[in-house]
Write a structure and sequence with these properties.
- Pfam families: 4HBT, CBS, DRTGG.
- It is a single chain.
- The protein has 432 residues and is α+β, with helices and mostly antiparallel strands.
- The chain has 15 helices and 22 strands.
- Strands 17-18-20-21-22-19 form a 6-stranded antiparallel beta sheet. The chain has a 5-stranded mixed beta sheet with strand order 4-8-7-6-5, sandwiched between helices.
Length: 432
């Protein structure tokens, strides 16, 4: 195990809420401060630590898939540019919901829940009530807080946060952060589609071992790992064709293969496989093999996504939701209106919005007509003219070339019967 891995494991084993510093790690583990710094940054990327203003770096609980839509109180501090007045040991806890203290204190009790957040101004009685009920408190307007409230927050291990922003602004910040998390949750990631604990070969294996594994599994592509289960290569039919059984697999495997992490979007993995001409990508964590994803796995996941209700909305989704779609002989036709989300600063539909519509129309033509999942190869816009707000437009996307691996579609946009934009969309097909 490398020093870097030792430090990561050390951080993971720290008690949640523990403070971490580069100097402390360097001294305790007898490593350079540079090594300690890089390990802390990697642990932060993995979600095990968080850096807070005026507090420093703190060990936090890594979010599970079920909790991804929740913020931690530590994240709330950063979002509202706040300071922690008390209850620091509870910063790692998840925020279940937040409420604004704009009512009589006696009426608040029925709405306050454990690990919720009360957003309130200079109201000591409301602050005390929330803390006693197991909720955190965010004091807006930069008001001072009574020492009694600070001590109570420390005793119940619930954060007491102060922000100079007003209540409306703070609530807007938190709402926006929750919205971003919901959009992120909608993205299907490699971990949702990969094959866990896959078959693999040790780098000391032979071509004969590959053939035996082929007979058992009926697969033809296997990751190759070293003694620490780190991926060092891929062995496929093309690599071993015509070779004798006693030849070491490490001499014929494809070295330095492309790998992805389990949080990589499936669409990105699919794009890599198409562009690199490969059928399988190893999935790693700390460089160690934990799974594999194939083109077929990626296609199934992307197809399943199209049937799932979306919690958060993306720009593409918002724009395309304004259009109805119907199939034509060679492609599709869409009808809809330009909306505020599509406008540029001058009050007409922006080139970017029209490109979004045209690109999506091209992809949808292949999906509707050929039942093919594709990734973009090139997108050429020949011209576009401005269209005003709430004007109806018609978009046609016709497939003009279709091969086994790629295709082209011509996309035209019409306003009041006149052509206002024209483009050519080229795609690569994700093989089934």
């Amino acid at each position: 195990m490398t020093k870097h891995e030792q430090i990561i494991n050390y951080i993971k084993n720290l008690k949640v809420g523990s403070r971490i510093s580069v100097r402390q790690l360097a001294q305790e583990l007898e490593v350079s401060e540079g090594t300690a710094y890089r390990a802390i940054k990697d642990a932060q990327l993995e979600g095990f630590v968080c850096t807070l203003p005026r507090i420093g770096t703190v060990r936090i609980e890594k979010k599970t898939d079920e909790a991804i839509e929740k913020l931690s109180f530590a994240e709330v501090v950063n979002i509202v540019e706040g300071s922690i007045l008390g209850g620091k040991t509870g910063l790692h806890k998840p925020l279940n919901k937040f409420l604004i203290g704009a009512m009589e204190v006696k009426e608040m009790a029925q709405y306050i829940e454990p690990e919720s957040l009360l957003i309130v101004g200079n109201r000591k009685d409301a602050q005390i009530l929330a803390l006693k009920m197991g909720a955190a408190v965010l004091v807006t307007g930069g008001f001072d807080v009574d020492e009694e409230v600070v001590k109570l927050a420390d005793s119940v291990n619930m954060p007491l946060i102060s922000s100079s922003y007003d209540t409306f602004t703070v609530a807007t910040f938190i709402n926006r952060a929750l919205y971003k998390l919901l959009v992120r949750k909608d993205v299907i990631r490699v971990k949702d589609a990969m094959v866990k604990d896959p078959d693999y070969l040790d780098m000391n294996a032979t071509v004969g071992d590959w053939r035996r594994l082929l007979k058992i599994t009926h697969h033809s592509k296997f990751p190759v790992v070293d003694g620490d289960k780190k991926v060092v290569g891929i062995a496929t039919t093309n690599d071993i064709a015509g070779l004798k059984d006693d030849i070491p697999i490490k001499d014929v495997m494809s070295k330095n293969p492309i790998v992805v992490g389990q949080d990589t979007p499936v669409a990105h993995a699919a794009h890599l496989m198409v562009w690199e001409g490969i059928e399988l990508i190893p999935v790693v964590e700390d460089k160690k093999l934990i799974g594999v994803i194939t083109r077929q796995d990626a296609i199934r996941a992307l197809q399943n996504l199209s049937f799932q209700p979306q919690i958060g909305e993306t720009i593409d989704g918002i724009v395309m939701s304004r259009f109805s779609l119907s199939k034509t002989e060679n492609g599709i036709r869409m009808r809809g209106k330009t909306g505020p989300i599509m406008l540029n600063p001058y009050g007409v539909a922006s080139c970017g919005a029209l490109m979004t519509v045209m690109a999506n129309a091209g992809f949808e033509a292949f999906r509707s007509q050929k039942r093919l999942e594709t990734v973009p190869d090139s997108f050429t816009v020949y011209f576009s003219k401005p269209v005003e707000l709430e004007e109806e437009i018609e978009v046609t996307a016709d497939i003009i070339d279709m091969g086994r691996k790629s295709g082209k579609a011509e996309v035209n946009v019409y306003h009041r019967g006149k052509l206002v934009a024209k483009s050519l969309v080229s795609v690569k097909v994700i093989d089934r």
